[in-house]
Structure prediction request, 126 residues.
Amino acid sequence: MDNMERHIILGTDFWTDCDDVAAIRLACRFAKQKLWTLEGVVLNACMAYSAPALGGFLAHEGVSCPVGIDREASDFGGNPPYQKNMAALCPSPLTNDACEDGTALYRRILSRVPDGTAEILEIGYP
Prediction:
């Protein structure tokens, strides 16, 4: 299989810690090196700055892909500052309201990926 035939959907909580930031940075690097196609990122935890922070970070890394969000996943507790700080550091016009529903994005990507296959990498709350 040619590396570019690998279609990746990344699921992330992008919530309280740095593991998701590191994983997204790696995913962006692999996409820019044409090791795979990053088809989309789905946020499976939702805070006020989730989409703006992720959108800004993706743009800062030079990657463009759709972002989906589970708007109902807001009950994990806490209000860590790093999303708000990230959104300020890497401004993005992306908003939580502008994001496609996460399940809808998964389904849309899976329906159009050649031969119906995609690899789902989940680093957040499944």
Summary: Helices lie at 19-32, 50-60, 82-89, 102-112. The mean pLDDT is 88.
